[in-house]
Amino acid sequence: MNRIVIALMVATALHLEQQWLPVRVTLGGGTNTLLTSSSFVDLGGFKTPALSDLAYSAMRGMGFDAAGNGAAGSIYTNAFGNAQIAEISLATPSLSTNQGTWNTATRLQNTVNIQASFCNDVEQINDDTRLGGVFVVGSQLMLTCYVEYSGALIADGSHFLTSSKTIASMTKSAGPANAVSTRYSTNLSPGFAAGPIVEIPAQWRASFGGHTHASGLWSAPITSRTSQGPSMRVFTASDLVGKTTGQGITGVDVVGYPLGHPTLGGLYSGQCSSLYKGTNDIDGWSCASSRGGIIWPTYGRTVVFVSRHGDLDQYCYGLGVTSGDRDGPIPGVDTFWGQVSGASTSLGGTRVTVPNLNVSSITTDGRSAVYLSGETVPANKAYISAETGNQDNGQRYDGAAPIIGKGNSGTPSAYVDVSASNPFNDGLTGKTANVGELTCWDPAETSKGQHAPALTTPNYPLRFYLYDINDLISVYEGTLEKWEVYPYEMFTIDFTGITRNVSATYGLPGAALNPTTVNTVYLGLNMTETANPERATVRTLQITNPDAPKPEPLLPIAAGLAVWSVGGLLRRRRV
């Protein structure tokens, strides 16, 4: 009865006003229930088949197909970090902590690189593109693509429709179109929307102007063009039909944190910080938190974002190294400017003369440093860079100091100056000097970039951000700004106690929802095995709800998996 009444209300609104009117949903069946960390039940994991002939696989963009694999269900997924896509079957998950015993899914469609045929069209001057999201729409796929490193606020587009679901032969049916945010005209960038795609459940569409889908992107490189924390833009998939490169479709941002509004934490005034620190000591977001996936369950009043989480207290920018100790002597410097012997100090330890090093090769961009091998002074100094500024958090080093000046001390020698607050011992001679960027201790990641491994584990756990849909409706209606909404609960799951011979990292997690079951979620994780680095893993969770059917029996959280909550955030509520 309630469903019929709501349908009549919507139809009346359409007849009289010729537009969709916001409707607060008050139905039974779980639409008023907020999910919590206890709503997520771990069913275990399974392995993917070989997705790539490259070193590793990453399941960043994922879409569930209920009709796939003879209606048994399948997953379309990004198969590597760029723009490769494949289709795989489901497999029975296992709660064993030995990943080697897990079942392996079947490859249903071979991996195809669609970078040239799709993704490179999003920006004509830059081919460093990525597949951001995959979603099944009937007999077609909806895709999103974006440029990995782009400071531009405007691109040629981001959203595509394919001609079919056959990966090897599919072509562009529509796009790339720009899903333009009508409310935030200064944030048209695909950096807020060109990632994972979800369907808006039918009972919520009227509240979002009749829009049918949503997509988001956050923590993409170049902070100025993306969100520092979960983001979402609602739009209508059918509007993509007939659109060509650069044509726009109407969308509305309902959550997002642009530069200057790091509500959850992130880069602010040149420093990587968390606005919760010093108040309730909640680490909401850090500069090393990653892109991830979105889950919009078909019941409940919650939208869920999943990301790999970085610990702000361990923040560092540079080349990751696995040796050494976070608070001990550093492993060294990424010596792309040079490693020289015979270095000496003078002027009270503030000047280091480095023989046989061309001064023109040294930069003083805030990330430059000089490290004297074997020295312990200056001791235990926090990492300083263009991201962190002079703050107390971040990785710490002995025998290193940021470079604040440089000059010639006799051809071909150079000297570098350091701050009087971070001097070396004076009068040193015959030292080995490394000049470059400080390396970052990170047992899980060795790439160059943002690093913030958890000190206790040490890895990057998964962070779940739970948002009240009514808060997002308030943003859609214009009573809140998109950066004024908070997750009502955050919780973290760490699966890295699983036995395998590889460093503990999830890469950039993807998420796909199977709405035909009791809301089963598939998390794509880059938890490969040494013997099979081309394979990834899928973790299966089930979302339970007090007002919805529950599986029998409910399986407990697997032994050895740490789950803890950091909820209780202040947030503005819609009234």
Question: Could you explain how this protein is built, in words?
Answer:
This protein has 575 residues and is mainly beta. It has two domains: 2-315 and 452-565, Tachylectin-2, Chain A (5 Propeller), CATH 2.115.10; 317-441, no CATH class. It is built from four helices and 34 strands. The strands form eight sheets. It has an eight-stranded mixed β-sheet. A six-stranded antiparallel β-barrel has the order 19-20-25-24-21-26. Strand 19 and strand 20 form a beta hairpin. It is elongated. It starts with a helix and ends in a 10-residue tail after the last strand.
Side-by-side strand order of the widest sheet: 6-7-8-9-13-12-11-10
- Please estimate the helix content: under 10%
Low-confidence stretches: 1-29, 275-281, 327-331, 384-392, 499-506, 549-575
The largest β sheet comes out as: 8 strands, mixed
Number of helices: 4
| Outline type | elongated
Count the E strands.
34
Please name the CATH topology of the largest domain.
Tachylectin-2, Chain A
Just name the CATH architecture of the largest domain. Answer: 5 Propeller
Mean pLDDT rating: 76
How far apart, in Å, are the first and last alpha carbons? 25 Å
CATH class of the largest domain: Mainly Beta
Rg, please?
A: 25 Å
Query: How much of the sequence is in beta strands?
Result: 25-35%
